[in-house]
Amino acid sequence: MRVRIRRGAHEIGGSCVEVESGDSRIVLDVGRPLSAGRDEAVSLPEVAGLAGGDPTLLGVVISHGHQDHWELVGLVPAGVPVFMGGATAWILAEAAFWTSGLTLDAAGFLVHRQPFELGPFRITPFLNDHSAFDAYSLLVEADGRRLFYTGDIRGHGRKTGIFEELLRKPPDDVNVLLMEGTNIRADDAEPSRQLTEDEVEFRCAEVFRATDGMALVMFSAQNVDRLVTLYRAALRAGRDFVMDLYTASIAFATENPNIPHPADDWPHVHVYVPRWQRVKVKEASAFARVDQIK
Fold it and tell me: Using CA atoms, how far apart are residues 134 and 131, in angstroms rounded to an integer?
């Protein structure tokens, strides 16, 4: 088995890794570089078959739903199989309606610690703690060798238990560990410690209690951990939590009953529909989206 980093070794984001065994290959992530401008055209990495026409490319595996790991997969021809988490696919489909996302028929869904075969490759996903919901690390086995690609990983979110499980029960006999070093420093300076989601929750609750009138928070709706954090902070402060329709649609898309959403069994949750979202629903005749939260 041979591995080549096609993009992302000298920058944050744009991740793309090619793995080869005999005449067969797979690709792990096809992201857009974070340094690329909003309207800048970015080509696919130079991987044979990624633009189509080479049957030796057996598929693309997307680790999680951040654009620097998936966005260029929209340029990959439909004949190339794409694998990702189920919730990742549903969230990206919702995002495609509202802002920028992706709608595709995935060839298969990643499931925590459930391996699947792709030609000579055996791939085992490991669920991650990350700000992107439904994020995975990937163990790839072929030719008696084992590669562990972490994807994006952390230990200070709301899934610390899954991170600690990985530390307790890591894959055995890994030959190569491939990890993106977003927080690695070039000098010896000690990096600042990241706040845990619990700490963010407590601090937000303090701010909410101390604020007269409405407290407004800007965050990515697809950061589902932060959605949960802010809801819990609102309850701590004796507040109602109001999300917009886009955020509500992302919460529904997770299909996770533990994520706050506008349903009868979630107290103090409301939905506000800004004008641009009302226009979007009207132009698309997508009135079921409004009916869902009435």
Answer: 9
